[in-house]
Amino acid sequence: xxxxxxxxxxxxxxxxxxxxxxxxxxxxxxxxxxxxxxxxxxxxxxxxxxxxxxxxxxxxxxxxxxxxxxxxxxxxxxxxxxxxxxxxxxxxxxxxxxxxxxxxxxxxxxxxxxxxxxxxxxxxxxxxxxxxxxxxxxxxxxxxxxxxxxxxxxxxxxxxxxxxxxxxxxxxxxxxxxxxxxxxxxxxxxxxxxxxxxxxxxxxxxxxxxxxxxxxxxxxxxxxxxxxxxxxxxxxxxxxxxxxxxxxxxxxxxxxxxxxxxxxxxxxxxxxxxxxxxxxxxxxxxxxxxxxxxxxxxxxxxxxxxxxxxxxxxxxxxxxxxxxxxxxxxxxxxxxxxxxxxxxxxxxxxxxxxxxxxxxxxxxxxxxxxxxxxxxxxxxxxxxxxxxxxxxxxxxxxxxxxxxxxxxxxxxxxxxxxxxxxxxxxxxxxxxxxxxxxxxxxxxxxxxxxxxxxxxxxxxxxxxxxxxxxxxxxxxxxxxxxxxxxxxxxxxxxxxxxxxxxxxxxxxxxxxxxxxxxxxxxxxxxxxxxxxxxxxxxxxxxxxxxxxxxxxxxxxxxxxxxxxxxxxxxxxxxxxxxx
Length: 579
Fold this sequence. Notes:
With 579 residues, the chain is an alpha/beta fold. The protein has a domain at 92-317: ABC transporter transmembrane region fold, CATH 1.20.1560.10. The protein has helices spanning 3-11, 17-48, 57-105, 108-111, 116-123, 125-158, 160-168, 170-207, 209-214, 218-270, 276-317, 378-384, 408-413, 429-433, 442-451, 455-459, 478-492, 508-522, 557-563, 566-578; strands at 339-349, 352-362, 367-371, 393-398, 401-402, 415-419, 496-500, 526-530, 543-547, 550-555. The strands form 2 sheets. A 6-stranded mixed sheet has the order 6-7-8-3-9-10. Helix 3 (57-105) runs antiparallel to helix 6 (125-158), helix 8 (170-207) packs antiparallel against helix 10 (218-270) and helix 17 (478-492) runs parallel beside helix 18 (508-522).
């Protein structure tokens, strides 16, 4: 891990340093109690019982003391488990919020290539494993150090030769655990990769379940999902094989250590070099220095697992948004809504330009219709205006203000978009309309719905504005969803509008209502209309025809038809297709 990432890793502890210190202190006390109890037992066996005291009072007193230590350990354990995990949960919340905020800032070009399922995996399972490292890592290190060093010091003071015999086995345990754990960690990484594929496939299928069922492709989807699921299952089984290998070997090592202590201790007792109480103490301490070894090895696993998640987290966080505010960005003030594209060139990749050196001026408060065959850049041109993408060259300005010199928030607040593929969020009708202005009152929401010709059908729903629309508005028709989207824009009240083929997928009746709503919405606003069905823009005063080389023709319907050019050909093709 490089220095910058290491600093970032530690930075998430900063708000919780007092809680971290308290957690580590409690963990230290908890570890210390497990070291003290065997010493008390040794004292009872070696000193009190052989002297045959007149009463059991000293033994009972020490028993009460041990119960007190057990109670103290329980309190510390409770604190570590509760507050330690609470700290981890808060850190997880902080990181997820930071990741979510960063994802909101990434531009469309990032999402053009990103897989939603993979991003979800990074925001859920990856962060969970990372937080396990944040929480358990420091605890495990402190507990391991206290127990290992304390046990060695105590046992060495009791009988150094037997201590050295026991600790001679430790390197073998570490070597075995290291190699076994390395394979186990590789398995965990593979699990994450395949789990991300499962998440992506599941998310893709559930989003497209209606398409799947309409094509009767459930069997095909089952086979496709089975292939990915089998890959994940296979990876998990391999991991469990290495896990069985690791834990079986470690348990055998601990048992072997107990056997060695018993045999070597018996030899020392036979030679009168060790007491029975001392042997009992050694046996009790075995877990105190084998558990730290387990914890260190498990920490290595947690570290590997957590750091792989942190690296994946950093990979996203280190992606710089292609489009961001300049340091000196100013607020956009739209007065008239005059828009100018000057010598604009754009390409999704350098070898395939969408358009080059395009010039276009749209006066404020007027409408312009964009037409042309698929792929000529109608939607792309409009996507440059709210800076979903930036052009490779040229400038775009609104009322004389170049859009890359103003803040994205103020720019996008002044632009309303109604698309063909309407996206509605899970929730109620009112919540979806209010998305245009989250602070809107119910009266404002209803006014926007009425302006969009949506109020009547909303009131016919079972719960009116409180009706749940289902996932992505599945309970509504296409026309109803469009009118909700228009109501949302009415509520936003932007100065500039973009209608991206907003009626092309609607039936005639729905199109009639939506067209009325769009016409009302466009009044006195600068409006771009991307038209697929040319019949919808026959009355437009300004029609721009885009072709492979940019703007090919411009004028109203009659003027363009008289030219017998590109526009006339498009109209003829649509007429032939319609008949």
